[in-house]
């Protein structure tokens, strides 16, 4: 209620309750008895829409929006007079920092200002009319006469329907004398300007600093008079923009555009950016809003939220709620359809946010049910939606519950219900169970009075309208409650809902009926124990009950609407209530008490001190009478405890403790010798604003002595830290886009590093873990699976860990334990098992459950399943509640038995409540981009059919050439992002002699043509096939050149091939002329080329050829010759141009890792134990050596998944003790301190070059276009830092050439390169009318032996894909079809008995069924063979690291080398798919 003037209230400009004024005034003094309060009535014709007090004065102004007049009262509302000299008062504005000034905005260019609290008014002129769209005036907190005025300028355009039409834009003006002289132009084409010192807490910013959100001053708004938000930028000036206009780049350079919001909250300046369409780069699916914060107006930092909280953060989807000077509180809209949010609180500098409260209640305006109590640090009341799942999923009414915090949001608890009802009866619920019986109160989303909702400056007094039970009842069914101890305990003061107000620092309480018209109010002088009735002399429907903002007066005003019968002198009434005539004595010292604020557990220390106020004893019959004097809060410092400290700079909280994120900088003149020590941070600092006494408590921020070996190295030098673990590391996982790593050891323990392996801490000691699972879509989430029903999880990248309980123990059937929803991070599917502990159990089976509240509640999906998963994907936009299961047909027996039991594929809508059987028998399914691929089992024939769908319901069969049917063959679906599917079909499955053919599909995934033969694969089903990351259409394979001989001898001869047109043609790799020592290669025959070792031989699957952040770079181990040499006889080769040219950069085989987007490359010996690494800062031109303590046999070298860091770690073991793991953290970040400069406007003076894959060769185009990329100049000595945003600017589309075409279905390229028909095959129909007549094309062309590569954008030239031309008969629309993103599924044959498929899949999008013609491309081929199955690439290889495999590895360590934890074919391209795929890159 009215405890603060409007300028201090959070939602005053949004709530919009109705207030305003009248033409005529009619004063009616009500009858007043001796010692009775005084009542004076002023009748109004119209409701005011603005009411405010001048702070610490009795003066009130109200604004009548109908007559555009202003009334003034100099005696707290007893008498009212219209002001003079003002006509057409459109808007009334108080000065937020000066209680003398107020402003009236007029219709045109004449406005008024008062310098004496509205007693007199002076007019002033502006050259533009006022802008009423936002804040017309902006004020300086310390210079009250410095004011910014927002005006509107317009031009007549003549574009209107009748020859008129105007284009308008905003201009900002400034005054330094409060409009005593004419304001001057500050800046044109603005949308908002503010002073950096807009609040008293921003004193750290320069005094004259101004920020403006502005557009190009030379560009007027577009159609409709609206600028595009994409063109808005933030500018600053300290000289009123007279000579300087600085572009504020927010620390991100030229990308700092699209500024849609700017504000000052406490000490924080906040700017909101909206990313342009298609520019959102967040891994889990699109983050269109970005917030930046500054505390000095000079340095800006991007805020960091846990990404699971931001599935759809959009403009107006977040609300900055009441914040302290120590942090910002932001509520984010997490369920847009239901207006439900999540509250986050920032760190001290406003950058890193942690979740404070889930499921907060919001309204459609973004206002959040959260309010802090006045004058009491850390205490606030909020409402949460207890039935979020039902509200979001089924549209049920919100079930609101109220909670209170005493530690600034760290913990919350229900409001304790009063002991009795107002009549003394007990409540109908059990007060001992707060979950079903607590107090719930109406809050700020639906305000019922003016000002603050719960509290005022009256110390400890809190009032609310609410109900007791398990939820909040409707307002009209609620009662009125009071607390005198800041919400610890409550009492019912009146039945029914009432408006309420505090006066005289709480010594008098006034309430008015808020359910129906009333002729009286009640008041209490004893803290609500007894209530007296005061007759108003008029019956009104109460609208507002308020008093002066600091609640120190005994005078109140009540605004109400009278009945129609009583509206002759004005329908509305402003009723003045004065309780001073009661003439109680003034309080003296013995009437006062010292009241301490306490938390929910009775502790009196808040923010390091006890807070207490002198307030009147509740039973003292006296008045305080200190009008305009706020109650003075006193503080008594407490001894410091753990709760008084937070993590120091460069430290993060990990499992309750603060750990360093990397080496710290040592003080000057220290660490002269390697064995010296220095005083460094303990990892903790006292919370800003905390006043605890360290002398009598713990001191966690005291500097501690550290060895200089742990300090940041000198510039130009690398450093390392060695860690030893007592057992084998069986799994490691990075949190994407972070520095945090999880290690799983063979002894079942989990270790965490929050600083890229610099230091480690064991998690949840005493627990035994089966495995680690990273969330597939929310990169800040991970799950630790125990062998019990407890799962540890984090939602903030390991800063904190919590637990939830699963409905049963995890399964040991090889089934993924957890499946994740792509857009709802809290939605989980858990698969456990029952009756599986006994070896001979006859009832062992899996049971799947789902949860929509992150494991708090579970509901069963199905029993006897092999896989259950969410059907929805970020690109497959079907019902988000649909679940797809592979469900065994016969629900009996043991899933371990091996007995044949067909798997049905079931799609279940509404959380599997409405089931549809898709197929009677399958051996697996997977989603790629917008495709759903299913391996259908034809039970009678014992064959497989590949079924393809674009909507998950309508399927079409994949078509292959007649001699290459896949029913009886193993096949592997390879990756692609170029509008087609690559499929490897095994042609020779003999052990150690495997090879096959790669087929490529048309754009809808149904017709498959031969791309290349004799491609090498291994027994596990993996293929020597790898795409280049970042450059579309480039892939490398290894082929078997002696297939017939190898089938007999078992000795494959391998050669490497590369494609630059997405498999249209394959060529040998061009060999370099000489080796790294400058010696010429003996390579003269045409069969001599560069041969490189492929994926099937790679001991560390994470060592991909290329990097997601270094476009064009590839590294490979190989040799120059006619065939691939043995790995120990190979050397290291590099290409900088996507595989067109190669050079040998080092002798011998090495493992490698890219860092800092390729500016550093680190190699480690891969043939024997080593005590050093070698690194290059110029992409292999020169190499340096860095040594560590002792030799280890390195198993892997790793860095952050995006390859953007200069820190790495090695995992290996000493040759003398292979049972223990040695981990070495390598830090190269001090080698150079010079950051590379990218200057788009001045490319001749920066550190980057524009490069195209076409440079230096005859083929100038890839996929029919020439594209330019930025890459660091090779010999520049600088580091890149964050990944370079590649513009991918297309210089031109090229003329079509042979490389833009491939063979049509059932055709293949012969030795001459021509496409010829497969023997015995039938060509597709020559008619392409249905495909080409899409409603936009005038002609269609007959089909030929060629087809254009779908991804090519070439234009004109020779078109061998076009036969005879025909006119299109009419408009036939067809939906566009998207391409596949990266993924891999291996398909292996199997025997009938003992089938357990280990499963993993990704999901895709875009609706619409695939359409096939009525014809068949070839005749019936019913030949049956051995029963086959789809056994996907084991999920532990491709990113869903599950517990069962980790357990197996611990039991059979040799499997660790056979199966690494890197998905074999998934890469992260620098395109839209990278947002989805980045979460898998580290797994």
TrEMBL record:
Keyword annotations from UniProtKB, A to Z: Glycoprotein, Membrane, Repeat, Signal, Transmembrane, Transmembrane helix
Q: Which family does it belong to?
A: Belongs to the VPS10-related sortilin family.
Q: What is its main location?
A: membrane
Q: Describe the location of the VPS10 domain by residue ranges.
A: 59-713, 739-1373
Asked whether the keyword 4Fe-4S is assigned, the reply is: no
GO cellular component assignments: cytosol; Golgi apparatus; membrane
Protein's UniProt name: VPS10 domain-containing protein
Tell whether Transmembrane helix is among the UniProt keywords: yes
Please report the organism this UniProt entry assigns to the protein.
Naematelia encephala
What InterPro entries does UniProt report for this protein, alphabetically? Sialidase_sf (IPR036278), Sortilin_C (IPR031777), Sortilin_N (IPR031778), VPS10 (IPR006581), VPS10-sortilin (IPR050310), WD40/YVTN_repeat-like_dom_sf (IPR015943)
């Amino acid at each position: 209620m009215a405890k603060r003037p409007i300028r201090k209230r959070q939602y005053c400009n949004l709530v919009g309750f109705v207030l305003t004024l009248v033409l005529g005034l009619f004063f009616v003094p009500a009858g007043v008895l001796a010692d009775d309060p005084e009542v004076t009535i002023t009748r109004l014709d119209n409701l005011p829409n603005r009411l405010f007090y001048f702070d610490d004065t009795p003066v009130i102004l109200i604004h009548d929006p109908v007559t555009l007049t202003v009334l003034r009262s100099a005696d707290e509302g007893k008498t009212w007079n219209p002001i003079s000299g003002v006509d057409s008062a459109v808007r009334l504005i108080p000065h937020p920092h000066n209680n003398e000034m107020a402003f009236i905005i007029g219709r045109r260019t004449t406005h008024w200002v008062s310098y004496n609290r509205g007693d007199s008014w002076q007019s002033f002129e502006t050259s533009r009319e006022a802008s009423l769209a936002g804040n017309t005036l902006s004020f300086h907190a310390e210079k009250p006469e410095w004011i910014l005025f927002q005006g509107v300028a317009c031009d007549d355009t003549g574009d209107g329907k009748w020859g008129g039409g105007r284009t308008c834009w905003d201009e900002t003006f400034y005054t330094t004398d409060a409009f005593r002289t004419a304001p001057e132009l500050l800046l044109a084409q603005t949308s908002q300007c503010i002073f950096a010192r807009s609040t008293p807490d921003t004193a750290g910013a320069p005094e004259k600093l101004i920020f403006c959100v502005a557009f190009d001053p030379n560009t007027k708004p577009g159609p409709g008079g609206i600028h595009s938000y994409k063109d808005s930028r933030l500018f600053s000036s300290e000289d009123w923009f007279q000579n300087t206009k600085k572009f504020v780049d927010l620390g991100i350079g030229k990308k700092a555009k699209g500024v849609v919001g700017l504000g000052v909250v406490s000490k924080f300046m906040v700017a909101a950016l909206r990313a342009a369409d298609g520019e959102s780069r967040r891994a889990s699916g699109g983050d269109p809003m970005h917030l930046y914060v500054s505390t000095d107006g000079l340095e800006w930092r991007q805020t960091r939220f846990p990404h699971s909280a931001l599935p759809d953060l959009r403009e107006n989807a977040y609300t900055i709620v009441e914040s302290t000077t120590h942090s910002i509180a932001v509520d984010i809209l997490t369920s847009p359809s239901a207006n439900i949010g999540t509250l986050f609180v920032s760190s001290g500098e406003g950058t890193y946010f942690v979740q404070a409260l889930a499921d907060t209640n919001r309204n459609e305006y973004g206002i959040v049910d959260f309010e802090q109590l006045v004058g009491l640090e850390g205490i606030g009341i909020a409402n949460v939606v207890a039935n979020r799942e039902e509200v979001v999923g089924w549209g049920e009414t919100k079930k609101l519950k109220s909670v209170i915090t005493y530690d600034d949001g760290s913990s919350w608890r229900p409001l304790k219900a009063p002991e009795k009802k107002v009549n003394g009866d007990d409540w109908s619920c059990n007060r001992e169970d707060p979950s079903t019986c607590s107090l719930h109160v109406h809050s700020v989303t639906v305000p019922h009075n003016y000002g603050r909702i719960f509290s005022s400056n009256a110390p400890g007094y809190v009032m609310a309208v609410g109900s007791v039970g398990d939820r909040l009842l409707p307002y009209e069914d609620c009662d009125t409650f009071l607390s005198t101890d800041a919400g610890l305990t409550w009492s019912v003061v009146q039945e029914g809902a009432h408006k309420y107000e505090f006066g005289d620092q709480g010594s008098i309480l006034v309430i008015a009926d808020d359910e129906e018209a009333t002729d009286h109010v009640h008041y209490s002088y004893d803290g609500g124990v007894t209530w007296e009735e005061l007759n108003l002399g008029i019956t009104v429907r109460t609208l507002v009950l308020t008093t002066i903002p600091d609640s120190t007066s005994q005078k109140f005003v009540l605004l109400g609407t009278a009945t129609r019968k009583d509206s002759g002198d004005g329908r509305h009434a402003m009723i003045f209530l004065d309780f001073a005539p009661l003439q109680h004595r003034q309080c003296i010292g013995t009437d006062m008490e010292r009241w301490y604020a306490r938390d929910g557990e009775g502790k009196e220390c808040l923010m390091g001190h006890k807070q207490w106020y002198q307030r009147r004893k509740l039973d003292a019959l006296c008045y305080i009478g200190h009008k305009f004097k706020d109650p003075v809060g006193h503080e008594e410092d407490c001894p410091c405890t753990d709760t008084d400290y937070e993590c120091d700079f460069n430290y993060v909280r990990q499992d309750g403790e603060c750990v360093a994120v990397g080496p710290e900088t040592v003080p000057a003149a220290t660490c002269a010798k390697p064995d010296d020590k220095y005083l460094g941070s303990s990892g903790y600092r006292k919370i800003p604003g905390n006043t605890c006494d360290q002398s009598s408590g713990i001191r966690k921020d005291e500097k501690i002595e550290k060895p200089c070996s742990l300090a940041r190295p000198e510039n130009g030098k690398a450093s390392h830290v060695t860690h030893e673990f007592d057992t084998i590391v069986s799994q490691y996982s990075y949190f994407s886009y972070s520095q945090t790593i999880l290690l799983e050891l063979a002894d079942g323990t989990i270790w965490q590093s929050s600083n890229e392996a610099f230091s480690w801490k064991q998690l949840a000691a005493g627990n035994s873990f089966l495995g680690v699972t990273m969330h597939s879509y929310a990169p800040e989430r991970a799950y630790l699976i125990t062998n019990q029903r407890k799962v540890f999880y984090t939602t903030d990248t390991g800063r904190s860990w919590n637990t939830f309980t699963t409905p049963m123990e995890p399964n040991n059937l090889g089934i993924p334990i957890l499946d994740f929803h792509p857009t709802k991070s809290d939605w989980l599917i858990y698969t456990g098992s029952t009756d599986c502990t006994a070896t001979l159990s006859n009832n062992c089976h899996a049971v799947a459950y789902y949860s929509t509240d992150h494991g708090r509640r579970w509901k069963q999906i199905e029993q006897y399943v092999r896989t259950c998963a969410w059907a929805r994907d970020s690109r497959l936009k079907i019902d988000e509640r649909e679940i797809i299961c592979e469900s065994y047909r016969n629900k009996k027996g043991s899933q371990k038995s091996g007995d044949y039991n067909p798997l049905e594929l079931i799609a279940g809508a509404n959380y599997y409540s409405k089931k549809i059987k898709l197929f009677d028998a399958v051996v697996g399914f997977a989603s790629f981009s917008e495709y759903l691929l299913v391996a259908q089992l034809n039970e009678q024939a014992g064959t497989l059919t590949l079924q393809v769908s674009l909507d998950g319901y309508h399927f079409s069969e994949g078509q292959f050439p007649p001699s290459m049917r896949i029913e009886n063959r193993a096949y592997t679906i390879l990756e692609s992002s170029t509008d087609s599917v690559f499929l490897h079909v095994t042609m020779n499955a003999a052990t150690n002699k495997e090879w096959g053919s790669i087929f490529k599909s048309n754009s809808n995934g149904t017709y498959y043509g031969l791309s290349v033969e004799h491609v090498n694969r291994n027994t596990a089903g993996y293929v020597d096939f790898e795409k280049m990351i970042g450059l579309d259409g480039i892939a490398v394979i290894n082929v078997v050149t002696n297939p017939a001989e190898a089938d007999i001898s078992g000795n494959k001869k391998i050669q490497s091939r590369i494609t630059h047109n997405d498999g249209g043609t394959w060529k040998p790799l061009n060999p370099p002329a000489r080796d790294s020592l400058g010696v010429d290669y003996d390579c003269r025959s045409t069969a001599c080329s560069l041969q490189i070792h492929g994926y099937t031989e790679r001991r560390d699957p994470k060592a991909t050829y290329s990097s997601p952040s270094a476009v064009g770079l590839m590294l490979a181990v190989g040799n120059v010759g006619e065939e691939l040499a043995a790995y120990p006889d190979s050397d290291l080769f590099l290409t900088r141009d996507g595989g067109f040219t190669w050079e040998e950069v080092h002798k011998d085989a090495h493992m490698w890792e890219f860092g800092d987007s390729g500016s550093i490359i680190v190699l480690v010996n891969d043939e024997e134990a080593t005590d050093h690494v070698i690194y290059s800062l110029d992409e292999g031109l020169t190499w340096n050596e860095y040594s560590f303590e002792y030799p280890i046999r390195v198993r892997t070298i790793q860095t952050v998944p995006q390859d953007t860091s200069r820190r790495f770690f090695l995992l290996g073991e000493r040759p003398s003790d292979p049972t223990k793991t040695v981990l070495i953290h390598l830090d190269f970040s001090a080698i150079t301190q010079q950051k590379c400069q990218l200057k788009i406007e001045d490319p001749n003076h920066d550190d980057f070059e524009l490069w195209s894959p076409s440079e230096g060769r005859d083929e100038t185009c890839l996929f029919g276009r020439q594209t330019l990329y930025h890459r660091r100049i090779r010999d520049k000595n600088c580091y890149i830092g964050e990944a370079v945003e590649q513009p991918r600017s297309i210089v031109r589309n090229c003329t079509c050439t042979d490389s833009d075409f491939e063979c049509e279905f059932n055709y293949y390229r012969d030795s001459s390169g021509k496409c010829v028909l497969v023997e015995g095959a039938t060509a597709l129909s020559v008619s392409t009318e249905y495909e080409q007549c899409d409603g936009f094309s005038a002609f269609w062309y007959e089909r030929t032996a060629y087809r254009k590569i779908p991804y090519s954008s070439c234009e004109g030239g020779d078109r061998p894909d076009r036969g005879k031309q025909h006119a299109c008969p009419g408009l036939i629309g067809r939906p566009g079809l998207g391409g596949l993103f990266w993924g891999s599924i291996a398909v292996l044959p199997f025997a009938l008995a003992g089938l357990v498929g280990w499963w993993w899949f990704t999901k895709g999008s875009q609706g619409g069924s695939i359409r096939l013609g009525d014809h068949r491309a070839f005749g019936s081929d019913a030949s049956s063979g051995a029963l086959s199955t789809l056994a996907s690439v084991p999920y532990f290889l491709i990113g869903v690291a599950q517990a069962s495999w980790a357990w197996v590895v611990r039991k059979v360590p040799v499997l660790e080398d056979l199966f690494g934890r890197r998905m074999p074919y998934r890469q992260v391209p620098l395109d839209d798919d990278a947002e989805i795929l980045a979460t898998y890159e580290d797994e």
